[in-house]
Design brief:
There is one protein chain. Helix content is 35%, strand content 21%. The longest helix has 16 residues. Strands 11-10-9-6-8-7-21 form a 7-stranded mixed sheet, with helices on both faces. By secondary structure, it is of the alpha/beta class. The chain is globular, with a radius of gyration of 23 Å. It is built from 17 helices and 21 strands. Belongs to the MurCDEF family. MurD2 subfamily. Its EC number is 6.3.2.53. Keywords: ATP-binding, Cell cycle, Cell division, Cell shape, Cell wall biogenesis/degradation, Cytoplasm, Ligase, Nucleotide-binding, Peptidoglycan synthesis.
Length: 470
């Protein structure tokens, strides 16, 4: 759907609304106003957001803080922020009455091509783990090739902020909240990269099956020209995509790792052990990036070496520094047990105290507990809403495997217990395997607090290199 179509709907008496006033909601308002300055809009938001919106001085923007099915059903189109689930009761009731929900990602793609056509140069990246680093690394290497490249999307810059911008290539991170949005208007991405899929965000999607379906919408419904897929992920390996070419990574025929050495087929390209890509999963995703670059028609082999200059992203296995003999690692982005396991693997040869727990989304921690029977760190401290559930699951394993296990009320207490367990030697690893909601607004706030509690400057850890167009 294009913004001009919103105007036509409004001209015929249809009501147009925004739902959500975060980063994406503000970007949607700015984009709509830039193209449709006379379009009346309703903003569904909370009272604090209504006060903020009032400062804009937009006489055609009406705020409504009483969000329910009846109000949503009175709208022809609702431009919804990604964090608001379409499976919420009121949203589903309104959709059943004919209200159309659309996201900013769909509005942006509608400006790039007509339905059924390919939006040239767009590379959409998703996956349960590694999508942000993969997207940023893709942009980094495309820029090394000399292409004017945009880095945007879920990574921190809504696509609608770049509505009228031009670039040779678009490195776009998409969350599971946005992947289905790409398919809404029928515009096809040029390339779609999927790193892996395992359960996450079950509270938003409602079930694991729905999460997987929404994630795979980028492939099954958006129908990219070429899908770049991780051959080592069983869900991806089983896919058949009749409308897309499939380029695999992680196979002996394509880009893959043998130990720490990067190969293209049978040709060794470089040793990856010195790259600023913490975790084998990130070095594996370099294979996905190089495969995507080849899908764009570029010789990727000469670009692999440029990964040495990549600047890692904040809150993703981010070394903050050493305090009193202990290395502090901020992996606040970790929101699944699988992510915590991957973080532990990076430091498997070190003495580690791991902090886990946060908002409880009902994810199953049994596989994590099973892994601790043979691969436990020196100590684990549980915390947050799901901390007691994780503690109870780990308690018999800790007695059997012999690692220290304790429970904390909050992050500050968890840090104190972890430092005591380490006794001045090792790694203090925040990789919670759970969201931060409740205790913190988001994972960045949690990561900043972790840094501050360690005596590090929170502002110094925040920048995401390369955001925007360069």
């Amino acid at each position: 759907m294009r913004i001009s179509q919103l105007e036509a709907i409004a001209a015929n008496g249809g009501r147009i609304a925004l739902w959500g006033w975060g980063r994406e909601g503000r970007a949607a308002w700015r984009a709509i106003r830039s193209r449709a300055p006379a379009l009346p809009l309703t903003l569904f938001c909370n009272p604090d957001e209504a006060s903020d919106a009032a400062t804009l001085g937009d006489p055609l923007l009406t705020c409504d803080t009483g969000i329910d099915a009846a109000r949503l059903s009175a709208c022809a189109v609702v431009v919804k922020s990604p964090g608001i689930s379409p499976y919420a009761r009121d949203a589903m009731a309104a959709a059943a009455q004919g209200t159309q929900f659309v996201g900013g990602t769909a509005l942006w793609f509608a400006t790039r091509a007509a339905p059924g056509e390919v939006a040239a140069g767009t590379v959409c990246v998703t996956g349960t783990k590694g999508k942000s680093t993969t997207t940023a690394l893709l942009a980094h290497l495309l820029r090394a090739h000399g292409l004017r490249t945009a880095l945007a999307g879920n990574i921190g810059l809504p696509l609608l902020e770049l509505l009228d911008a031009n670039a040779d290539a678009w490195a776009i991170e998409l969350s599971s909240y946005q992947t289905g949005d790409v398919a809404t208007g029928g515009v096809r991405p040029d390339i779609a990269v999927v790193t892996n899929i395992f359960p996450e965000h079950l509270d938003w999607h409602g079930s694991e099956a729905q999460y997987v379906d929404d994630k795979l919408a980028l492939l099954n419904r958006a129908r990219p020209r070429i899908a770049v897929l991780n051959a080592n992920d069983p869900r991806l390996a089983a896919l058949v995509l009749p409308d897309s070419g499939i380029h695999w990574f992680g196979t002996p025929e394509g880009w893959h790792l043998r130990g720490e050495v990067l190969y293209r087929g049978d040709t060794a390209v470089m040793d990856t052990s010195g790259l600023p890509l913490p975790g084998r999963h990130n070095r594996g995703n370099l294979c996905g990036v190089l495969t995507a670059i080849e899908a764009l028609g570029i010789d990727a082999a000469p670009l692999a070496a440029a990964a040495v200059d990549f600047v890692p992203l904040p809150h993703r296995l981010q070394p903050l520094g050493t305090r009193d003999g202990v290395l502090w690692i901020n992996d606040s982005i970790s929101t699944t047990p699988h992510a915590s396991l991957a973080a532990l693997d990076v430091y498997r040869d070190r003495r580690v105290a791991l902090l886990v727990g946060g908002h409880d989304r009902g994810l199953d921690w049994q596989a994590f507990a099973d892994a601790m029977r043979t691969g436990a760190p020196h100590a684990i401290v549980t915390m947050g809403q799901n901390g007691p559930r994780i503690f109870d699951l780990l308690a018999p394993v800790a007695r059997e495997a012999g690692f220290a296990l304790s429970a904390a009320e909050d992050l500050e207490s968890a840090i104190a217990q972890a430092r005591a367990a380490l006794d001045g030697v090792g790694v203090l690893l925040l990789s919670p395997g759970a969201p931060s909601f409740g205790a913190y607004r988001d994972y960045t706030t949690r990561g900043r607090h972790f840094a501050a509690l360690g005596g590090f400057d929170p502002d110094a850890i925040m920048a995401i290199p390369g955001i925007g167009i360069a």
